[in-house]
């Protein structure tokens, strides 16, 4: 779960989930109101979690699983991936770039 680097306040799952969809570089701690940034490591982990259902799809297609079953598993996989993303939300005091 996300933790503020300034005051060490642990963010709730619901607050972290809401902040996933703000699409802003900085997010503010609900406790101390300081600007925090999603860390490079956190972004990498979240992107890997989001790609897991896609890899599952490729495996199912390779084994000739019915299309309707693949679609159902994909929908469930993406829902589970989105619901677990707040657990991989890591914060930093500074903006970190991919490069």
Write up what this structure looks like.
The chain is mainly alpha-helical and 99 residues long. The chain has one domain (13-92). Helix content is 49%, strand content 9%. The chain contains three helices and three strands. The protein has helices at 13-20, 40-62, 67-84, and strands at residues 26-28, 35-38, 91-92. Strands 1-2-3 form a three-stranded antiparallel beta sheet. Helix 2 (40-62) runs antiparallel to helix 3. It starts with 12 loop residues before the first helix and ends in a 7-residue tail after the last strand. The mean pLDDT is 91.
**Chain-averaged pLDDT:** 91
- Main β-sheet, spatial strand arrangement: 1-2-3
Number of helices, where a helix is a run of at least 4 consecutive DSSP H or I residues? 3
The gross shape turns out to be elongated
Proportion in β-strands: 5-15%
Poorly predicted tracts of residues: none
Order of helices and strands: HEEHHE
Report how far apart the termini are: 25 Å
Question: Which terms would index this structure?
Answer:
single chain; 99 residues; mainly alpha; three-stranded antiparallel β-sheet; 3 helices; elongated; CXXC-20-CXXC protein; CxxC_20_CxxC; plasmid; transmembrane helix; transmembrane
């Amino acid at each position: 779960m996300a933790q503020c680097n300034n005051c060490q306040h642990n963010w709730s799952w619901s607050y972290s989930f809401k902040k996933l969809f703000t699409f802003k570089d900085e997010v503010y701690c609900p406790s101390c109101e300081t600007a925090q940034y999603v860390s490079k490591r956190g972004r990498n982990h979240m992107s890997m979690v989001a790609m897991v259902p896609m890899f599952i799809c490729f495996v199912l297609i390779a084994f000739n699983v019915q299309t309707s079953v693949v679609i159902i598993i994909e929908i469930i996989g993406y829902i589970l991936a989105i619901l677990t993303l707040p657990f991989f939300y890591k914060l930093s005091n500074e903006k970190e770039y991919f490069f």
